[in-house]
Amino acid sequence: MTWTTYALGLLGPEPPTPLIDFPVAAPGVRLLLKDESRQPTRSLRHRHARALFRQAVAEGLITEGTTVVEATGGNAAVAQAWFARRLGLPYVVVMPGERTEARARPVEALGGECRFVTPPLAIYDAARALGGHFLDQFGRAAPHDLAAELFGQVRPDWVVTGAGTGATSAGLGAWAREHGLPCRVAVADPDNSAYFPGWTLDAADYATGMPSRIEGIGRPRVEPGFRFDLVDLVIPVPDAASVAAARRLREVTGLPVGASSGTALWAALELVERLRARGEGGTVVSLIGDAAERHLATCHDDAWAVAKGLDVDPHLGTLRERTAA
Ligand SMILES: Cc1ncc(COP(=O)(O)O)c(C=O)c1O
Fold first, then answer.
1. Ligand 1 atom closest to Cα of 48?
2. For ligand 1, is residue 261 a contact (CB within 6 Å)?
3. Out of 90, 126, 232, 281, which could bridge 67 as a Cys pair, Cβ 3.0 to 4.6 Å?
4. pLDDT on residue 114
């Protein structure tokens, strides 16, 4: 067996993540959360990482002994380090800013190496300069298998996701269209992100130049992987509402989700509210992007929210009304 065949075998599909029934105060409407925190590295980025490795191995860009390189922080680095270890490959990630243990430790625990670089935008050039194979999650946005798995489990009327690279929304939209499903795809977009204004203006080169405060989603510019033609609706979500919804999600499920899961939940509840107001039933699926203890010190922490100027309580009131079983 060649190394490539062996590696592709290790990068095959994994067991499906579950759907969680979430309470909504809307008769005939079902809200399901696709729980990506049940991935082996506890986030949706696990699928991205597998897809990027598979693509690179299949194209011969990664072979036995190749050093794998990426420029990113957070969950993507953890998932990629996990796959690099599984394949026995060295992994180096360039992260923006100063070293923090919370970001470095999970990657180093998996045998990866972290380098920290300022200013934040210098991470891409720094990663390219390292040599090895640059995975380039934004440039490549390899299609992952969430859509096939999800539509095999349920046939919803709406699916709600955030957008970082754009791969998830594009994958869901492409799958639904190719298979003639009447499911529509909504992207939940946080403050400062270019996706909502870019989509409303049909401007693929739109840039806000401002970083998103919601980890994992929202971008200062429209990324090449975001496909306007495969998205039916983009819903802007204020950051305070994202944080409130992440807290409500934790209250109901016990999962210490990140704020991006709250962004998606808030937008999903907007869709549920529309259905309720029209007296319609239906099924809405929203994504849980990740869960991690480290989120307890950020979006689930009152002092953190106050320091960021986020007034969470009014949104929590709305959420409790909309999610009263
Ligand atoms: C809720 C949620 N949706 C979507 C994404 C990913 O979006 P994309 O595939 O555009 O990078 C994330 C982060 O990985 C997320 O947390």
1. 9
2. yes
3. 90
4. 97
Domains and CATH numbers, the chain: 3-39+142-322 (3.40.50.1100), 46-140 (3.40.50.1100)
Measured over the CA atoms of residue 95, residue 17, residue 150 and residue 14, the dihedral's sign is positive
CA of 226 to the centre of ligand 1 (A): 11
Measured in Å, residue 168 CA sits from the centre of ligand 1 at 6
pTM: predicted TM-score of the whole model, two decimal places? 0.96
In tens, the pLDDT along 261-293 reads: 999 999 999 999 999 999 999 999 999 999 999
What's CA 104's distance to the chain center, in Å?
20
Ligand 1 pocket residue status of 45, Cβ below 6 Å: yes
The answer, yes or no, to whether any atom of ligand 1 lies below 6 A from the CB of 168, is yes
